[in-house]
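User: Please fill in residues for this 165-position structure.
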């Protein structure tokens, strides 16, 4: 059984799109590192998760992955605050009462939190995939436009079932 780590933001839910809209309403440029950091540290994650959309049947796909018995599935998500962790855990627990959730402080690479060797990471952020691959992991890009940027790419999580027969 392969270890499968799934990013949350931009893979399971469109929280990135929602947060970017809120960032723009606040008049904060994405290039304003300090402004963005403060914004995300104070973001109302309860609101974000109440208005975001699940991407391409993400929760049903995760259920299929778990039920297949092919993978040890976990959510591996970067976080900016304790508040974000709390609300993401509550949100995910509504669908999966016992799924492992690994929150990673934004300033730490996901590769430093778990053993990456031969483990699969599905992520939308190429830098995370670059780090994962460099540490011996299997990197899969999630992108709704199917732009892999040099990585195998999927736009539905249950596609992994046929990729890893």
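Assistant: Residues filled in for all 165 positions:
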């Amino acid at each position: 059984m392969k270890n499968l780590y799934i990013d949350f933001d931009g893979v399971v839910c469109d929280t990135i799109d929602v947060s970017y809209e809120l960032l723009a309403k606040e008049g904060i440029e994405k290039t304003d590192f300090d402004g963005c950091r403060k914004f995300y540290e104070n973001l109302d994650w309860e609101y974000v998760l109440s208005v975001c959309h699940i991407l391409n049947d993400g929760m049903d796909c995760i259920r299929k992955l778990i039920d297949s018995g092919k993978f040890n599935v976990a959510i591996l998500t970067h976080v900016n605050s304790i508040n974000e962790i709390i609300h993401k855990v509550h949100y995910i627990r509504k669908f999966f009462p016992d799924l492992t959730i690994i929150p990673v402080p934004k300033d730490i690479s996901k590769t430093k939190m778990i053993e990456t060797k031969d483990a699969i990471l599905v992520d939308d952020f190429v830098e995370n995939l670059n780090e994962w691959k460099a540490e011996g992991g299997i990197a899969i890009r999630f992108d709704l436009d199917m732009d892999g940027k040099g990585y195998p790419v999927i736009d539905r999580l249950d596609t992994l079932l046929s990729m890893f027969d």
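For context: The chain has two domains: 2-14+53-163, 15-51.
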